[in-house]
Amino acid sequence: MAIELGLSCRNLIDADVFSKSDPMVVMYTQGLGSKEWREFGRTETIWNNLNPDFVKKFIIDYFFEERQAMRFDVYDVDSKSPDLSKHDFLGQVFCSLGEVVIHGTCNNQRINKITFPHRGTSSRNTGRIVIMAEELDSSKDIIRMKFNGRKLDKKDLFGKSDPFMVFCRCNENNSFTVCHKTEVKKNTLNPEWQLIEIPVRTLCNGDHERTIKVTIDFTASNGNPNQPSSLHYIHPHQPNQYALAIQAVGEIVQDYDSDKLFPTFGFGARLPPDGRVSHEFALNFNPANPNCFGIQGVMEAYQSSIRSVQLYGPTNFSPIINQVSRIAAGDTSGSQYYILLMITDGVISDMEATKEAIVNAARLPMSIIIVGVGPAEFDAMEELDGDTVRLSYRGIEAERDIVQFVPFRDYVAQGKSQILSQARLSKDVLAEIPDQLVGYMKSRNIQPGPPPPTYTQQPGPSAP
């Protein structure tokens, strides 16, 4: 008889330094005479996931009268190379097909012999493989389906969603096994997926009464930060658009900050270790002291955090604006003025709450700069930038215009100087700040105070 094997992994080790492992499982069978292990097949790679459920299934003929030995090796994929020696070995499980058929799952088999590159071996708990087995129906029928979505939620980190559909079939124990995933449709709330052609035995194993669960998932529009296609990709030699925007604005404003300490926050991510979703977390993961020293410190915190968190939606601006507003409300004497720089790649999910937050912030000593990166449309940002029509919320008009928005793409062109592009960007986004600051001080009748103490660089290590 033909047996279908489905694989999952649970609680894998983080083999990557700054992100979760990217697991793939390789299945081997053993020859009866030679005892040689032969590769039977490989699952797909599931990026940045320690608990993957693989769509790829293995179909193998089962013979009761033979002992059919199997081996499953788990790897953390580090490149596109098919050479397994180029990837990190996480561990393996040995079992027989008979064991899996009898018990249905080898979910107590522990992955062993964990190897960390250049660190030797580890004896700590290294996770497990779950192997689901089911006899395949002989049906050769094919089912064809076509799906589309309309007005989906904006679940992405920034911008519109990147949705895909997941089909799961119900098992005899009422658990579900993933049997198909559609392609991802980028940056849309109205996706139309390609025609699905799938064998009936894959979808329901010939049982037309079997329950099928269909869900829609949403990937982060910024993409996997470990992949070059991501807007957050950390290139070893070239800064991404987020980094360029931070540098362009930050290197100007830091000259006007006496202590060079910048509270820096992220939003729209699942945080380690428990996956809690946050829309206002300290980028250095120290909520008691979110300050970074200098723009270089901000850059280091950004690059470290983007490798540690999982990007997640929806895109809520108001928590960050309200957080900075609380800081600004603590000092209205005129001794401090706050500039909030927000970098986004698309649509805001909490538009009304963001309007309310900005209207309230307009009474405080602060300004907001929004830089849009990537190719998305930024119509909503223009509404927040009250140059033409003063922003209002429920009939209450903002006391001042404190928002300046610019799309980063207007300042970056092929072949143009990066330094000049950054200079033009910083000039335009900061052009309104002096008038906004002076306007606030005059409205509160705050007179100029004495100049701050001269900044002296923090001492470094003594010269030899």
TrEMBL record:
Region (Disordered): 442-464
Annotated protein name in UniProt: C2 domain-containing protein
Biased amino acid composition, Low complexity: 455-464
Superkingdom classification of source: Eukaryota
Domain C2: 1-110
PANTHER family: C2 DOMAIN-CONTAINING PROTEIN, COPINE
GO cellular component annotations of the record: plasma membrane
Keyword line: Repeat
Signal peptide: none
Alphabetized GO MF terms: calcium-dependent phospholipid binding
